[in-house]
């Protein structure tokens, strides 16, 4: 080390430069050398007096094995950290603990082949949407080495970041397919989402009532008491879960699924009338077939020309006006969601329910009316909370992106960690202080 002036020093010893780059207290840099395409940095711990953790007798150094870890690349070259560990031996021959190896979580965690800084970097890269294969190629190691490290540190991060759970007062439950094998049944998972802040809270390996209810029941009492609204998509299973585990939460049926149900009812009537009138499924020149897209569009989105065209097509292909009635029911349901006054909205939905359940109505509309009656309170609750399961559906699309870039998953734990790191909005600042021993 040379002195330039009274307050500035320049480090000229390469070993001191490497030690400054490593930046770990009580860690000595031994050497730096190139081995083929890799750069190898050797370090060891500076230890003082070590005593046996069982009997307290002063321990002796048995040997010093070399263990190699994958580290972050240096200027495009793969880096390997060679850690000269200390295997200690108890001097007391009667002690049952004969030997052990000293560890340092700052350098690398136990059973992890990546250094701590490389493992945390890889975890953040996976959270940004990169594939394990890409990260492994950059570190010049195999897929399993990176995946094991990401799983270890990802689980630790999600466990430590309790803010993800504690900041919401509205959650959503929705199912998504986990794996589908040709000729076999599909396995489903349940997404628990924070619909208030648009993030995933957790993913459960089942959509079964017992499993979902058990997960919610295990959550802290204060967290459960804070939940005011529970969004769902007209699932009897999830409604039962809310009724039992979160009885104080107002259940809100997602508007998208209600409108989608009305659209399916309209389309079913159109298809039935088509067959009854012409004796075959819709063809290119059939009036109702030509009107199929106009019927599913919002009335306010139709131009004057499109409105006239729809009216003429219905006049030609729908002499009994059954399709026209279903179209008006669908639009009235959309008016219900556009209403801002809760009392007016409730009266509007009650009127629509009574209208749909009349005996003179087509069977498909009566079925829709019975569904509205069954879920009436949960549909009306939308105007109290203005929350929906839409964020959960959007988050499921993010999960599907993870499935696509991973070319599918068989291991649920890998699937869960990858999805939560990508769409769970973890507090990445916590990752720097994570300790995995």
Structural notes for this entry:
The chain is an alpha+beta fold and 437 residues long. The chain folds into three domains: 2-107, no CATH class; 163-254 and 388-433, Ribonuclease H-like superfamily/Ribonuclease H (Nucleotidyltransferase, domain 5, 2-Layer Sandwich), CATH 3.30.420.10; 255-385. It is 47% helix and 19% strand. The protein is built from 19 helices and 14 strands. Strands 12-11-10-13-14 form a five-stranded mixed beta sheet, with helices on both faces. Strand 11 and strand 12 form a beta hairpin. Helix 2 crosses helix 19 (412-423), helix 3 crosses helix 4 and helix 18 (390-405) crosses helix 19 (412-423). The longest helix is centred in the middle third of the chain and has 24 residues, at 255-278. It starts with a strand and ends in a 14-residue tail after the last helix. Mean pLDDT is 88; it is low at 1-12.
Features of this protein?
437 residues, alpha+beta, Nucleotidyltransferase, domain 5, 3 domains, five-stranded mixed beta sheet, 19 helices, elongated
Going by CATH, what is the homologous superfamily of the largest domain? Ribonuclease H-like superfamily/Ribonuclease H
Overall pLDDT score = 88
**How do the strands of the widest beta sheet line up side by side?**
12-11-10-13-14
Calculate the terminal CA-CA distance, rounded to whole Å: 36 Å
How many strands?
14
CATH domain class name of the largest domain: Alpha Beta
> How large is the radius of gyration?
32 Å
- Determine the CATH topology of the largest domain: Nucleotidyltransferase, domain 5
**Global structural class:** alpha+beta
Low-confidence stretches: 1-12
Fraction of residues in β-strands: 15-25%
Count of DSSP helices? 19
| CATH architecture title of the largest domain | 2-Layer Sandwich
How would a textbook summarize the main sheet? Answer: 5 strands, mixed
Helix content: 40-55%
Morphology call: elongated
- Domain tally: 3
